[in-house]
């Protein structure tokens, strides 16, 4: 067990002991970040320094990370003699709050304890990092009534969605479920998954999924890890920004080469088919993407998905993370969903692996019951991998899940889900629009429960995702800084300038009262910095 930290977080709104100490605290906050991201705070301080010493610089204008050009074209780093002024800039507001103390991160490990063979450089994913920082300010995941956690990527899991079936409060434990479950999953659940996909997406197709095309896995990450373990000797492309946990999974295995493909901010990070063509031309034989996409909340259209399958059918494995496929609002909230399963020609020939599960759509993230669909040969390999990676999924929960997957029941459940979450999305967009954020058809999420929020119009500190995150901590609001969605497992230097330091991800997964609390907190922040278009 680690010994207590030498530094304890200052009470919220308490003044720092000195300017130097406050500056050091901000540096220590940055020091908890993974190595590729440790330039955001430096970037923020340099920006404030430049805007202070060069009145022609617009402090609201974002600059490339780690380099802020002065009017003469030179780079102007922050200087120790500017500490006092920078601290003032970091903490100033028009509402009279004198200080904005920076949270003091606790060390992850006790340096006095020997750790033979341990990788102490393993970094936290975005959600874990923000939860750790919030914990230093009093956030307790098991008792968080005072906080609005808009960072966790999970939907509300109670009986709070009108028209939804009641969440189970107990499950039967049969004698059979006490045994080890097969690493491919129990046959009844595999059959139920195959039948659900055939009914939803393959009614008029001669090639149908069977239980042999389904592998049950203990969570989405476990499914991705199994997939990563069975592919070899290939280039695997993935798009940026995307799900933060991909980074550790892609860096862990050395049997393939991950190739990040940054998407363009100018068209709201849409995946264009010509980009995929270019990847195939340069020899990519595996492609991983979330659809609908985390964190942007957008998804490919059916016509785009169809063309994607046509492009990849002969030479490229498609790994489709579809955990948000039922959070789809473009079809009138009828309970329909979007899936690559509709565009597979032959379930045993088309190289397509589809991941989904109870986690998001059925709002049961704690059950860790998920699945992979694909050709039988891939499923056999995935089952074998489970025997040495994770041992398989909980048997009792698998048996309990079979009844959830009746096609008519699922359609009714998904309709209720879509109506409710679209209402929450519209609430978030409405509140933020009144605060001065701009939304249009291109940057309005049409799926998932995430909003990829651009901060670049805000003044100084607030335009930087680390500065905005820090201010949110003071209001007991948790969001995820955008730079965590830079998935760069090989630390390719050419990706330095695509870190999204002026974006944050906001989740509208929690219940409406938490969303209201979170929006109230963000409104107070903007009021303190004098950048609301109205008075409160």
UniProtKB/TrEMBL annotation:
Its cofactor is pyridoxal 5'-phosphate. Residues 147-501 form the Aminotransferase class I/classII large domain. Pfam families: Aminotran_1_2. GO terms for molecular function: pyridoxal phosphate binding; transaminase activity. The keyword Protein transport does not apply. Keywords: Aminotransferase, Pyridoxal phosphate, Transferase. GO terms for biological process: amino acid metabolic process. Residues 1-37, 52-109 are annotated as: Disordered. The keyword Hydrolase does not apply. SUPFAM superfamilies: PLP-dependent transferases. Belongs to the class-I pyridoxal-phosphate-dependent aminotransferase family. This is PLP-dependent transferase.
